[in-house]
Amino acid sequence: MSKIKLDLHPIYNKGNLIEKELSNYVNEASENKIDELEIICGKGSGQLKKRVLRFLEQKETRKKYHRYKKDAKNWGRIFVYFR
């Protein structure tokens, strides 16, 4: 099982860069047959996590992955699974 990780902590306050990085990682995972993308958005106030979830729910993005799961043990982490 191949897996890649995206940590959003270094760019949490750079709005346009967040979506660009998310898009790059989702595209990379989709194109390279990666099974799982782990997105670390941190616990904080929850705004960054909401932004990531909104990005994942976009129609064009939704076509590229199979499903996502919020980590039950670590509130600041999301797993995205690809086919």
Mind explaining what this structure looks like?
With 83 residues, this protein is α+β, with helices and mostly antiparallel strands. It has one domain: Ribosomal Protein S8, Chain: A, domain 1, CATH 3.30.1370.110. The protein has 3 helices and 4 strands; from the N terminus they run βαβααββ. Strands 1-2-4-3 form a 4-stranded mixed beta sheet, covered by helices on one side. It starts with a strand and ends with a strand. The mean pLDDT is 92.
Please specify the SSE layout and strand pairing.
Elements: E1 3-7, H1 15-31, E2 36-40, H2 47-57, H3 59-62, E3 67-70, E4 77-81
Parallel strand pairs: 1-2
Antiparallel strand pairs: 2-4, 3-4
CATH architecture: 2-Layer Sandwich
CATH level-1 class: Alpha Beta
Instruction: Encode the helix/strand succession as letters.
Output: EHEHHEE
Q: What is the helical fraction, as a range of percent?
A: 25-40%
What gross morphology would you assign? globular
Strand count, sense and barrel status of the largest sheet are: 4 strands, mixed
Strand content: 15-25%
Mean pLDDT: 92
What does the radius of gyration come to?
12 Å
Structural class: alpha+beta
Unreliable spans are: none
Tell me the number of structural domains.
1
Number of separate helices: 3
Distance between the ends:
11 Å
